[in-house]
Amino acid sequence: MNRSLAQTLLGTATLAKPLIPPSRALRQVQLHSIAARSRPAQTKWPSSSQPRHNSSYDYDEATRAPPPSALSRLSGATIVLACIPLVAFALGSWQIKRLRWKVALIDELEEKLQRDTLRLPRKVNPEAIPEFAWRKVYVEGEFDHSKEILLGPRTKDNVLGYFLITPLRREGGETILVNRGFVPREKMDQSTRPESLTAGLFRMVGMLRTQDRKNMFTPPNSPERGQWNFADIDAMAHYCGASPVLVDDIFEGHAGESAAQLQRGIPVGRSATIELRNMHATYAVTWYALSAITAVMLVRLLRRAPARGKTFANTKLPQ
């Protein structure tokens, strides 16, 4: 009886848990708290009784990029559109400057044509030609038809042809170049225009010329092949053995005389007036109009951009 009671007491003592000190218990609570925070959260799936949203809609909304701002959507177009009015206005102002320059040039040339005719000196200084360019000059001498140049092709009154440039040997003076005028393409060969082969002393009143600028679309000259596309005075003078002086013959007849001379192959010279192409006023109006139109478009675009951004920002997504 005593032995069984002792065994029972001993087993009870073995199964009983010892008391935990308070410090150790606090330590265990802290460890459990840290483990709970570090454990990944488990996904809680909704039960069949709870309402479920459309999974595809939720995914699209979650992965959709944020809406771009109005500034980012319009920055490229706005910058380009803002540059156009400024550039167009600058080009219009530049055309106004060109217009003033062209008007002043025309007035200067017309004033030169009103001056008295000069007798061309026996020896001409090429550096002084620009100062006396487009002045009427008197020259005389004999043509050297063996070295004539056909410059072109050109058109005159819807007729295709060439300008006939012939060296003029002056007695006691330098040989110069004379642009005798226009001949039709059918009269290119000398045998088809015997009346143009003037012999003996020739007197004329012409217009002193200066070097023209070559157009970027004009092909280069080919003297060895007899092709002259633009009036390169220095090259033509070297080819003909003359001084770099070019004088345009002046034709003062009427249209009937001009047509008769062309049929006979006689060159028709230039008019006594200077006709310069002056389109700068038209160009200026065009550029200014473009500047105004694009400026209005820019203002309308800038006014509409904030309204679009505000409307998009106030839109509520479905829940």
UniProtKB/TrEMBL annotation:
Q: Where in the cell is it found?
A: Membrane; Mitochondrion inner membrane
Biased-composition ranges, Polar residues, are 40-57
Print the organism lineage: Eukaryota, Fungi, Dikarya, Basidiomycota, Pucciniomycotina
GO cellular component, alphabetical, reads:
mitochondrial inner membrane
Report the function annotation for this chain. Answer: Probably involved in the biogenesis of the COX complex.
Primary localisation category: membrane
- Classification via InterPro entries: Surf1/Shy1, Surf1/Surf4
Q: Which domain of life is it from?
A: Eukaryota
Name of the featured protein: SURF1-like protein
Which family does the similarity line name? Belongs to the SURF1 family.
Region entry Disordered: which residue ranges? Answer: 37-64
UniProt keywords (A-Z) are: Membrane, Mitochondrion, Mitochondrion inner membrane, Transmembrane, Transmembrane helix
Its GO biological process terms?
mitochondrial respiratory chain complex IV assembly
Q: How does it sit in the membrane?
A: Multi-pass membrane protein
Q: Name one Pfam family in it.
A: SURF1
Q: What are the TM regions of this chain, as residue ranges?
A: 281-302
